C-alpha cells in the first residue's frame, strides 16, 4: 500500500502511542523521526524500528505529539514555534484544555489540529508499542475555528494510513463523549478490580471471563489516568453522579429484595444495560454485531493454527478472536466472532470435522 501521509513525520514522545504510530507509518515507508525526553525510551523505540533519531535541523511536514496530558500544551506550543512550516497534531485523550492553554499562551494555533485515537493498551512505553493497535478503531479529529479542510485531509491521511477510521467532533463534543465511553469506564473497571485486593485466594482462583472483561483496563497507569481524569473533570463528574444514583437505587433494591417492586427495579437496571451494550458499534464501526462461536481445543501446540486454517477453508471471515484457558484443565477456549449468517453453518461444519463446540 502507498502511504497517503507526506513525510517527514516527527513524533515527539516515543512511548506507547508515539512508537505505535511510528511502526505503522514505517510499514508504509514513511520517513519517521523520533524524539523523547527520556533518552532510553528513544533508544528503545529506535531499536524496535519505530523510526530514526530526529536531527537537529529536522524539517517535518507533520509533527505528532504523543506525550502525557500535562505536557501536551507545552510540547505542542514548542513544536509550533520550532517548525513554522509544519502541521502539528497530538493524540491526547482530552482536547478542550490543551487547546485553551495554547490560546491563552498566544500559540499559532492555525497550524494545530488536535486528534485522538480511541485505541491503546493498558500498558505504556515504547516496548508495548504495536503497529496494529489502530486497526478498525475510531480516531477523532477535533477541528477548531481556524482549521482548514486541507489540514483535516492531512490528518485523515495519517489516520487512514495506520488503519483507523477518522471521525470529526468539536473539542467539546469529544471531551463530553470520552467521559462516558472511556474515562468513566476506566474508573468503573478500577473500582471493581479494587474489590479484588482483599479477596480470598480461593475466590480469585476461580475468576472466569466476566470479571476479566470488566476489569481489563484496571491495569492501566494511575499516573496517566490521574492526568486524563483531572483534565476532563467537568465532563467526568456528571457521569459519575448518574452512576452513583443508579448504584444507590440498586443497592436499596438488593437489600430489600423481598419488597414489592424491588425485583422489577433490579430487572430494569439490567435491561437498561442490555439496551446500552447493544448500542456499541461492532469492530468496523457499523451497528452490526457479530455472532460468537466457542470452540474447545486441546491445550497443545498447533491447535489454534489448525482451527483458523479450517475456518478459512470453510470460507468464513473471522471478525475477532479471543482466547481463554480453563483453570486446571488441559483445554483452551477459543471464541470466534463471525457474521451471524455464517454461524450455524460454521458450527455444523466444524462439528463434522471433529471440533468440540461449547456454545
Ligand atoms: N495509553 C493509551 O491507551 C492511550 C490511547 C490514546 C491516547 N493516549 C494519549 O497519548 C499520550 C501518550 O500516552 P502513552 O500511553 O503513549 O504514554 P507513554 O508513557 O507510553 O509515552 C509518553 C512518552 O512521552 C515522553 N515524554 C514526556 N514528556 C515529554 C516531553 N516534554 N517531551 C518529549 N517527550 C516527553 C515520555 O518519556 C514517554 O516516553 C497521552 O497524552 C495519552 O493521553 C493514550
Ligand atoms: O486499553 C484500551 O483498549 C484502550 O483502547 C484505551 C482507551 C479507551 O478507553 O478506549 C483509553 C484511553 C485512551 O484515550 C484511548 C483508548
UniProtKB/TrEMBL annotation:
Residues annotated as domain Prephenate/arogenate dehydrogenase: 7-284
SUPFAM superfamilies, per database record: 6-phosphogluconate dehydrogenase C-terminal domain-like, ACT-like, NAD(P)-binding Rossmann-fold domains
InterPro entries: 6-PGluconate_DH-like_C_sf, ACT-like_dom_sf, ACT_dom, NAD(P)-bd_dom_sf, PDH_C, PDH_N, Preph/Arog_dehydrog, Prephen_DH
UniProt pathway: Amino-acid biosynthesis; L-tyrosine biosynthesis; (4-hydroxyphenyl)pyruvate from prephenate (NAD(+) route): step 1/1
GO molecular-function terms, A-Z: NAD+ binding; prephenate dehydrogenase (NAD+) activity; prephenate dehydrogenase (NADP+) activity
Catalytic activity, as annotated: prephenate + NAD(+) = 3-(4-hydroxyphenyl)pyruvate + CO2 + NADH
ACT domain: residues covered: 292-359
Family annotation (Gene3D superfamilies): 3.30.70.260, 6-phosphogluconate dehydrogenase C-terminal like domain, NAD(P)-binding Rossmann-like Domain
Keyword terms, alphabetized: Amino-acid biosynthesis, Aromatic amino acid biosynthesis, NAD, Oxidoreductase, Tyrosine biosynthesis
Name recorded for this polypeptide: Prephenate dehydrogenase
Organism: Naasia lichenicola
Amino acid at each position: 500500500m502507498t502511504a497517503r501521509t507526506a513525510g517527514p513525520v516527527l513524533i515527539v514522545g516515543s512511548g506507547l502511542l508515539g512508537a505505535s504510530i511510528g511502526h505503522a507509518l514505517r510499514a508504509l515507508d514513511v520517513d519517521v523521526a523520533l524524539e523523547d525526553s527520556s533518552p532510553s525510551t528513544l533508544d528503545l523505540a529506535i531499536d524496535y524500528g519505530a523510526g530514526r533519531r530526529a536531527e537537529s535541523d529536522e524539517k517535518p511536514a507533520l509533527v505528532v505529539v504523543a506525550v502525557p496530558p500535562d505536557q501536551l500544551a507545552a510540547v505542542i506550543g514548542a513544536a509550533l514555534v520550532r517548525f513554522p512550516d509544519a502541521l502539528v497534531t497530538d493524540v491526547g485523550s482530552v482536547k478542550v484544555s490543551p487547546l485553551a492553554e495554547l490560546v491563552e499562551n498566544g500559540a499559532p494555533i492555525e497550524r494545530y489540529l488536535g486528534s485522538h485515537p480511541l485505541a491503546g493498551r493498558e500498558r505504556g512505553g515504547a516496548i508495548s508499542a504495536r503497529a496494529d493497535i489502530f486497526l478498525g478503531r475510531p480516531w477523532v479529529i477535533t477541528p477548531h475555528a481556524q482549521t482548514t479542510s486541507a489540514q483535516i485531509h492531512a490528518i485523515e491521511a495519517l489516520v487512514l494510513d495506520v488503519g483507523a477510521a477518522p471521525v470529526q467532533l468539536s473539542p467539546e463534543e469529544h471531551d463530553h463523549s470520552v467521559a462516558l465511553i472511556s474515562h468513566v469506564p476506566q474508573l468503573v473497571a478500577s473500582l471493581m478490580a479494587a474489590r479484588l485486593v482483599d479477596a480470598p485466594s480461593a475466590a480469585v482462583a476461580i475468576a472466569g471471563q466476566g470479571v476479566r472483561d470488566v476489569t481489563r483496563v484496571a491495569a492501566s497507569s494511575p499516573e496517566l489516568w490521574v492526568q486524563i481524569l483531572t483534565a476532563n473533570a467537568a465532563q467526568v463528574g456528571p457521569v459519575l453522579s448518574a452512576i452513583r444514583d443508579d448504584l444507590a437505587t440498586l443497592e436499596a433494591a438488593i437489600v430489600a429484595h423481598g419488597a414489592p417492586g424491588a425485583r422489577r427495579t433490579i430487572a430494569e437496571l439490567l435491561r437498561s444495560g442490555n439496551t446500552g451494550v447493544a448500542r456499541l458499534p461492532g469492530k468496523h464501526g457499523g451497528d452490526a454485531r457479530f455472532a460468537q462461536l466457542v470452540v474447545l481445543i486441546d491445550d497443545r501446540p498447533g491447535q489454534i493454527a489448525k482451527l483458523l486454517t479450517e475456518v478459512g477453508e470453510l470460507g468464513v471471515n473471522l471478525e475477532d478472536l479471543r482466547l481463554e484457558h480453563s483453570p486446571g484443565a488441559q483445554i483452551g477456549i477459543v471464541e470466534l466472532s463471525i457474521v451471524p449468517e455464517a454461524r450455524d453453518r460454521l458450527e455444523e461444519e466444524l462439528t463434522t470435522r471433529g471440533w468440540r463446540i461449547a456454545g
